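Most newcomers find our protein records easier to grasp once they have seen one. Read left to right, the backbone structure tokens trace the chain's path through space. Once this layout is familiar, the rest of the handout is easier to follow. The record below serves as our worked example for the rest of this section:


***
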Amino acid sequence: MTISPLPRHGDVVVGRDVAGRTLRVSGHPESGRVVLSIWQDGVCRATVRLLPEDVPAVVEMLARSAVAHADSSGDQVLGLDTAG
């Protein structure tokens, strides 16, 4: 199988904690999957292959994990709910 350097159908999210870390989200209509893959520099470290019907639940989990809180200026900002 050929691994493309960037998703043809999807996007890349750059991690903020480790240099060179990215999350690639790619659609694969030929196999009916959405693939989430974690990359370190040019090496794929992990993948999760989702059915399209699983995507809304993952999006809901991501939205639920980002919770609003006030920063030092009193402005509302999104943070992560690490309680799981």
